[in-house]
Design brief:
Strand order of the largest sheet: 2-3-1-4
Number of helices: 15
Oligomer: single chain
Largest sheet: 4 strands, antiparallel
Shape: elongated
Number of domains: 4
Strand content: 15-25%
Length: 497
């Protein structure tokens, strides 16, 4: 074999080649995302439309059915699932596996844009988003206090905490669970409205026209320029209660406080986020799709520990949910299994060969082949997960086969034919080179077709199959380069007794 001849006559070449494989493999491993399982989620696009104040039946007929009829003819749709509630419509469109999610989302946007004129004017424009499993919260942090109310906690979290966690490496966004945002609540008295010949629309029109903050321009002189800011007239419940919403026949000004009760409250009172029976606010960390779950969770915990030292008295941040714990423990167990498997393989090789020098040759093949496999995983956009690590564990027994075949033939020529280690490595590797390549091709031909399976099963085991094939391929390369070079340097003829 030509490559084995070059490796034996030029040992620096084979050494540098193996070092390059290890170097690029380590770099690829550090850049690979860490997941529990491969990403097999089908392409899903959601369409959310808000129609405040409308009943569920009205939302169904005026929005949901109109959009469904428009998008039904898009190519690649598996099924459409819709849900109409009071004031809200949600449509989930799942496409066939393999459909490009960006192209699918663009097709949905093009179709929906054609029905905007058919939707009610009062409805908000449809919000079209790509649904991804990576949008799930990986860790929940709880903000609680023994002196602040939930609206105050919400205000503090949105002002000072959300931005602190959003800038962490790998964090896509931060969800605020159980939030209660301050809002001015107006409770209308229908009898008082009827007595003054007013309607809800009159109140809404007065609020829209009166509760505004318009730009007031600027004042310029020869040396200075000032931006004019008009102070808002409505800041407190008392200010809103004094808003004029109509005029009686006798000229009496009807104010909002005459027909309604105005108070400072929250947008939604029915939101709850409790921990051990204590009301609190949740900060949900959502990672980026390519980020490492364990590293993002660790960074969020460290940032929470730093923030806890600077919080006002009575405030504290605790943990309630951390998905990285299970993933970290699972990956750690696989790493332990990997180390034990490598140790057992080397031990068995030593027991059968009975020579520490000879054991060194196939033992070096294992780490080089496994580390180099991460180069292929990174190039194909895969991740480090339980299935890829399982493939590496199973591949340990296969990656040493080629090196053992080469080593055994070199040892036989040294002992039986009395050749020097250099000559035996040169001729012995040439003799079995074709067998090593043939064995590798057979194993690759077994595993690679699994990657072409369709459906969720094919996507689930594609990374497993490619990892096995890559590890075996690199083991063949190392067996024809590094192994004969090491054999020519470390093997010694047996002394006759």
């Amino acid at each position: 074999m030509r490559i084995s001849d070059i490796s034996i006559t030029r040992p620096v070449f084979s050494s540098v080649l193996s070092l390059l494989l290890i170097t690029f493999g380590v770099i690829s491993f550090l850049r690979l995302p860490l997941r529990e399982y491969p990403d097999i989620d089908p392409p899903v696009v959601s369409i959310d439309t808000t129609y405040r104040g409308a009943a569920a039946s009205v939302v169904e007929t005026r929005i949901t059915e109109v959009i469904e009829e428009r998008i039904a003819g898009i190519e690649g749709i598996q099924f459409i699932q819709s849900q109409s509630e009071d004031g809200e419509s949600r449509i989930s469109v799942e496409f066939s596996t393999g459909r490009d999610i960006d192209a699918a989302a663009n097709d949905i946007r093009d179709r929906v844009s054609g029905v905007l004129d058919d939707l009610p004017i009062e409805a908000d424009p449809p919000d079209i988003q790509k649904v991804d499993s990576s949008d799930d919260v990986i860790i929940w942090l709880n903000l609680s206090s023994d002196s602040m109310s939930i609206p105050e906690l919400t205000d503090y979290a949105e002002r000072f905490l959300v931005d602190r966690f959003s800038v962490l490496d790998g964090v896509a966004r931060v969800q605020v669970g159980g939030s209660k945002t301050y809002a001015m609540r107006i409770w209308l008295d229908r009898q008082a409205l009827a007595a003054r010949s007013l309607t809800v629309s009159d109140v809404e029109s007065a609020l829209r026209s009166g509760n505004v903050e318009l730009p007031a321009g600027s004042i310029e002189s020869n040396q200075r320029q000032f931006t004019v800011r008009v102070k808002r007239n409505f800041l407190t419940p008392e200010d809103f209660a004094g808003l004029v919403i109509g005029r009686g026949n006798d000229g009496y000004l009807v104010r909002l406080g005459d027909v309604a009760r105005v108070e400072r409250g929250t947008e939604e009172e029915r939101r709850l986020f409790n921990g051990n029976g204590i009301p609190m606010i949740g900060l949900g960390i959502v990672k980026q799709s390519t980020a490492n779950t364990i590293e993002v969770a660790r960074g969020a915990k460290e940032e929470a520990a730093r923030i806890n030292k600077t919080l006002p008295e009575g405030l504290k941040i605790d943990y309630s949910y951390d998905s990285s714990i299970f993933i970290e423990q699972s990956i750690r167990e696989v790493y332990n299994t990997l180390a034990i498997a490598i140790g057992l393989v080397v031990l068995i090789i030593y027991l059968f060969l009975g020579n520490l020098r000879a054991t060194l040759v196939p033992a070096v093949t294992v780490p080089v082949s496994l580390v180099a496999t991460f180069i292929v995983l990174s190039a194909l956009g895969y991740s480090v997960n339980l299935l890829t690590l399982l493939a590496l564990v199973l591949a340990i027994g296969l990656v040493v086969d080629d090196a053992i075949v080469v080593l055994e033939n070199i040892s036989r020529r040294i002992d039986e034919e009395g050749e020097t280690p250099l000559v035996a490595a040169y001729r012995g590797t040439r003799q079995v080179g074709f067998a090593v390549i043939a064995t590798t091709l057979v194993l690759v031909a077994v595993f690679v077709p699994i990657a072409f399976l369709t459906g969720d099963i094919g996507r689930l085991f594609a990374e497993f199959a490619i990892t096995m094939a890559a590890a075996v391929s690199f083991s063949s390369l190392v067996a024809l380069t590094l192994s004969p070079m090491l054999a020519s340097k470390v093997l010694r003829p047996k002394r006759a007794h």
